[in-house]
Amino acid sequence: MDIAKRINELSEKYRDFTAQNLSNLIRVKSLSCGEKEVITELKIQMESAGFDEVKIDPLGNLIGRIGNGPKVLAIDAHMDTVDVGNPENWNSDPFSGVIVDGYVHGRGTVDQEGGAASFITAGRILKELGFDRDWTVYFVGSVMEEDCDGLCWKYIVEEDKIKPDVVICTEPTHLNIYRGHRGRMEMEVSFKGISSHGSAPERGKNAIYMASRAALEIEKLNERLKTDDFLGKGSITVTEFVSGSPSLCAVADYARIHLDRRLTWGETKESAVAEIEEIIKDMDAHVEVLHYKEKSYTGLAYGMEKYYPTWKIPEDHPIIKTGVKAFKDLFNEAPHIDKWTFSTNAVTINGFYGIPVIGFGPGNEVLAHAPNEKIPVDDLVKASAFYALYAYYIQ
Questions:
Q1: Helix axes 207-223, 269-279, angle to 10 degrees
Q2: Which pTM does this prediction carry?
Q3: Residue-range domains of the chain with CATH
């Protein structure tokens, strides 16, 4: 049997099945920490596709299994989305899930429930073909990614005790193969001033001025951060400025800035903190890396530091070569190999745990978090085929 040809035939046969499954997911609003209904819908889809086992872990991640081999391939799609923003910017209901002109429309189609709909079909294909390799394939509908990249996989590895040999991240890649992205971290810098009456500011110490001087130096820092040939340049920007004083007639005795730091190869949490400490060394100020801890929809509180490491996989790594072969055999052309601009669950999967990750997902990432989000049904079909064939090819 020509396995690639057969998988292509089945992915096309289930075109409407895949599109309708995605439409059903999109109709359920699923912000971070509020994914219960969409996880319930995805669980129904896994069960209807004949998965060997389907379970929800205490954090709320949905984990479907096919096969029972000693080696583990996991295919991940986070099920939470960002909100819609200004509804007036949308041409249709963001939660309609309408299928028209070859696209599924709505919030989450690209980022990134399209990946989940595709892997449901991939699982159905594997069951229909009688998948019997010495691999276990886990299909993971993960939670809370938009709030805290990789937190879900920290739980899966450390608490569920599932540590795959290979992970496919189904974030949108425009059907390209991705092998890395910059890391990121969130920092806050707090400035301590001394208040005085606004009529005599010289008697006080204005925290706003300190924070402003630091912000301008941070703007300069952004220009001199290092660059990696593949991942590009590191960056930093001030994303929030908060201040306080006893009254609007008093010198501000407190200020705080929030920093979004993107880390290229070779930059670390320690090096990024040191850069800010150098800027504020003569100020009454303190920098800290923030910590995330929230309750999931199950009620479980779980957290991690908001540091998400940079990662990249060599282009000649076996998991990338396997992806290239699967792509060529399915679509009769060579794939484009690239990287994400944004951050994904791979910051934990590879950045912390060193698990090899390959990125392949339907949809164009430029539509992530944007109004009028939509995904081609053709992309869903091809992604379904890719995931299924990858499970056959992985060594």
A1: 130
A2: 0.95
A3: 3-181+310-393 (3.40.630.10), 183-295 (3.30.70.360)
